[in-house]
Amino acid sequence: xSAIISIRNLSKTFDDGTVALSNVSLDIQKGEIxxxxxxxxxxKTTFISMVCGLVRATSGVVTVDGHDxxxxxxxxxxxxxxxPQEITIEPFEKVIRTTRFSRGLFGKPPxxxxxxxxxxxxxxxxxxxxxxVDLSGGxxxxxxxxxxxxxxxxILFLDEPTAGVDVSLRKNMWxxxxxxxxxxxxxxxxxxxxxxxxxxxxxxxxxxxxxxxxVEQKDVLMKQLGGKQLNLELKTKLVAxxxxxxxxxxxxxxxxxxxxxxxxxxxxxxxxTRLLADLAAAGISVRDLDTSQRSLEQIFLTLVEESR
Length: 308
Ligand SMILES: Nc1ncnc2c1ncn2[C@@H]1O[C@H](COP(=O)(O)OP(=O)(O)OP(=O)(O)O)[C@@H](O)[C@H]1O
Ligand SMILES: [Mg+2]
Description:
Blueprint: E1 3-13, E2 19-29, E3 33-37, H1 44-51, E4 59-64, E5 67-68, H2 73-78, E6 80-83, H3 95-105, H4 112-121, H5 137-149, E7 155-159, H6 167-182, E8 186-190, H7 194-200, E9 203-208, E10 211-217, H8 218-225, E11 228-234, E12 251-252, E13 258-263, H9 272-281, E14 286-293, H10 296-306
Parallel strand pairs: 3-8, 3-9, 6-7, 7-8
Antiparallel strand pairs: 1-2, 1-4, 4-5, 9-10, 11-13, 11-14, 12-13
Helix pairs in contact: 3-5
């Protein structure tokens, strides 16, 4: 894979002094789905707006398929479809005309078949003659996606595309995004639904306080950071973890009936056998045990908490 977007040392300080992004460098590979996670105000929208050339960077360089987003804006922008976080559509225009018009803005000749295909894939075809103002919130968001796809972009930015979209339509949207990726479209999305990132992304980036804290292949991330937990259910209530077991860093539940042991499943020795022997020696009987994998959500929360 080769990089379609190259971002070097991108920073943004707003006029009021807010540092929204600091020194972000990243290559986005052709055909990948990159999910950006981060708490509110982390800088995700600012990042997307700068890469799409809508917000001027304080410093740094962005090139899109070799075109500088500043000096060669039109050529770069033509390759990009953007679904903004904020809903901005002409209220009294009809859905189908809104979508057609967007295509025209990029100087593309009319293609009714393409417009129909998009509206159908977003379950909007039946609503094509409705005015935008008469649509539900989730439908309006889908109109934004239709607009972004109208000019057949090679790169698609989705800033929280599924916010306010119901569960079954979210799944449809995921299918649509996957189909686009299969057609070779590069996709960058932000989401607050961690399961969405886990489900969709090839790579996951975590933005926090304007910094790109981490960017990694999803599978690697889940393996590297996803330590496992051994959950021990106890036969009798324990008031405190005995001091001789201090080295294990066991977490006792509030009711004293269970303990959690964090371990690294990749390590040669997990320490489980020794722990069980030491528990028995300390007179603690285990009624049942099971293991669980740390989820991306836990990984995310840990990273964000650590930098507080
Ligand atoms: N035009 C602006 N002027 C001043 N500060 C701004 C402006 N736009 C954004 N900010 C600030 O930049 C920071 C990052 O905002 P941004 O919208 O990029 O966050 P986000 O990660 O998209 O958050 P959310 O998850 O809530 O959408 C915030 O502190 C925000 O208040
Ligand atoms: Mg945002």
